[in-house]
Amino acid sequence: MQRTGDTIKAAIANSAxxxxxxxxxxxxxDKFGNGRVLVVGGxxxxxGAPVLAxxxxxxxxxxxxxxxxxxxxCVPRSIVNTARILSPNLIVVPLSGNNIDTRDIxxxxxxxxxxxxxxxxxxxxxxTGSLRAAGTFAKSCIALGKKLILDADALRIGIxxxxxxxxxxxxxxxxxxxxxxxxxxxxxxxxxxxxxxTDTAKALHCVVLLKGHETIVSxxxxxxxxxxxxxxxxxxxxxxxxxxxxxxxxxxxxxxxDAAVAGAYAQAALGDMLYRLKGYxxxxxxxxxxxxxxxxxxxxxxx
Length: 303
Known about the structure:
- This protein starts with a strand and ends with a strand.
- It is built from eleven helices and 14 strands.
- With 303 residues, it is of the alpha/beta class.
- Helix content is 40%, strand content 17%.
- The strands form three sheets. The protein has a ten-stranded mixed sheet, sandwiched between helices. A two-stranded antiparallel ribbon has the order 1-2. Strands 4-14 form a two-stranded parallel ribbon.
- It has helices spanning 15-21, 49-53, 62-66, 80-86, 105-113, 128-143, 174-181, 190-204, 238-251, 256-278, 284-295, and strands at 2-4, 7-9, 11-12, 25-26, 36-40, 70-75, 92-94, 117-120, 147-150, 168-170, 207-210, 214-218, 223-227, 301-302.
- The protein has one domain (2-20, 32-181, 198-295): UDP-N-acetylmuramoyl-L-alanine:D-glutamate ligase (3-Layer(aba) Sandwich).
């Protein structure tokens, strides 16, 4: 990344970022040695999103497909059966009611203690109690030293009041970024977007992944841009899959910044790949199913 006055010149992400994040797997490893992911989300209304965030909709988990060895999802009790039906690969832990609540904090902290990466937010909704609980839980994850991805509605928990760090990733789209910062990105060029993401990451002391056709990832010091060739990803659920992919890379020992760059690049590559097969008619679950096809060439084994 280069700075020219107030202009940020972000480097372009490429396959080398994906290769670097695709850590070798030891021949003697077990599932727990390849990273553990916890996803917390869902409500009685939005039952599909947390499944996609951990990577399963009609197939398997995106975090597991990306390389994590173990994934657990915590969702409100009212949608547990729906989640379990979608895939036999899911480990689903029921919470107390129809929405995430402060009553669930003790159980969530217990699950987080066993995880390497925690994703909070997909499908959670904006119930006042849920936002309060998610904010309390996010602070607990940071105190535990966990890598933390705050996505979707979890971006509304009062981010500015929480002491973040470089192990925390925020994944706003343009409207969510406006909610966080008051800065509108509609129609802005890549340099302006890179500066806005970098300024925000620096101010909040975290990593920011600003979604868009030209996705920006910044830790406040460095920035990378991921360019998609098509608009195929502009459909519901793809952002939730992205959180699962990033979590999978982070669980394998990558920094949150490197995992976010690799995840965004992988997501764009998957969208471009599927566009050739399905045009603008893909589903988020299609991305999950194609992750192995994209990542297998990067697989390596240590002996």
